[in-house]
Amino acid sequence: xxxAIACIGDSCVDHxxxxxxxxxxxxxxxxxxxxxxxxxxxxxxxxxxxDADGALVLEALAEKGVDLSHVQVLPGPTPTTRxxxxxxxxxxxxxxxxxxxxxxxxxxxxxxxxxxxxxxxxLWGRCENDLAAIRAMGVPxxxxxxxxxxxxxxxRALPHVDIAFFSDDQANDDELMxxxxxxxxxxxxTVVAMRGARGSMAWDGELFYTSGAIDCPxxxxxxxxxxxxxxxxxxxxxxxxxxxxxxxxSACASVTIGYVGAW
Length: 263
Description:
Blueprint: E1 5-9, E2 12-16, E3 21-25, H1 27-37, E4 42-49, H2 52-64, E5 72-74, E6 80-86, E7 89-96, H3 107-113, E8 118-122, H4 131-136, E9 141-144, H5 152-157, E10 163-167, H6 173-184, E11 190-194, E12 200-203, E13 208-211, H7 224-237, H8 242-256
Parallel strand pairs: 1-4, 1-8, 2-6, 4-5, 8-9, 9-10, 10-11
Antiparallel strand pairs: 2-3, 6-7, 11-12, 12-13
């Protein structure tokens, strides 16, 4: 069975220096794992390094049941993110992109992605220039801009995206609606702003929707946004209306923030 959602791009290892622990991560890796947690099949189409960290990522993904048939193992180090905790919020202190500097989708990867029901990637996935080809195969595309929708990579991606996500927990409602309109004007039919503890706001091309965050204990916010996206996309493929999609995103995130590490 071909996985329903292709999760494309970067992997990394999140290194919690104070704890002396490493956890597999990276936006597409996280998407794939959270989708499996929800019962949705997924594949990781990306790269890891040829080091022990790369083996750690692949072993952990295999245990979760993620399809790894189109992972490239490139010579060199797996990307690393250094993380510290401040009042339960994760703070990234350094990032080494490692082998992602040399990553590119191959023709066989694109053909494989074309057999999925949906594709999702993110700002650092290094595949923004491939999204037009993916959509041309009839595969809807979701893209996470993180908190940088004006980044050149995001700006190249957005005209070829069906569902765009970005993070902003500071803007007021009016400011956020204007930002969503600006992003939607570039092409996405659905735009979702993730607001952390303030919930989320979405636009479906006609109406704005708001949804609150689920009240729950917070241990570590790493992976919260990726969880929201996985829950939202899972509900989208299930054909649920916008309010249910947003609730599904928040519900998935509420599980993730209850433990240390992305998953």
